[in-house]
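hi! just following up on the protien thing from before. the input was this:
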Amino acid sequence: MADSHDEEQPQYTLYRSRPKLFRRRESDDLLPSPGRPDEAPPKAPRPKRRLRPGMFVAQVVGKSMEPTIPDGSYCLFRAPVIGTRQGKIVLVQLRNVIDPDNGERYTVKRYQSEKVMDGDSWRHIRITLKPINPDFQPMVLTGSEEGELQVVAEFVEVLGGIS
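and the predicted 3d structure came back as:
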């Protein structure tokens, strides 16, 4: 049985408002998904931890999460997010809004929410997606905009250089 460290993980490059998906070929090479056949995908570096189902690699482009996530870094993410999202760095898909810093529908930010009791359950009154870099502004969504985002995955680690 092969060690899970030897298994390739799917790669995604997030830019231009859509993830760039890579699919596996029998030869273990990665091929770009339809739409950009001219661009060969780089091999992402191996993570330091044991890989689990739901983990994937994505290239994070932008400076809003520096210095924790340098611009252009390949990062390991885990989906779905287990337990609270509060304070975690997450990959978010925005639905009817865009990230004002990059004009895209995907963003990586620190998640913070404020909730109130609404009968027997909780309701978000504000979700804030916070950059680490103080040169960037947080994105604030009010309760009526709560459905405007989907938390896709939780950030696990920045991977080393591209091989």
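The first strand starts at residue 11 and ends at 15.
Residues 4-158 form a domain with the Umud Fragment, subunit A fold (CATH 2.10.109.10).
cheers
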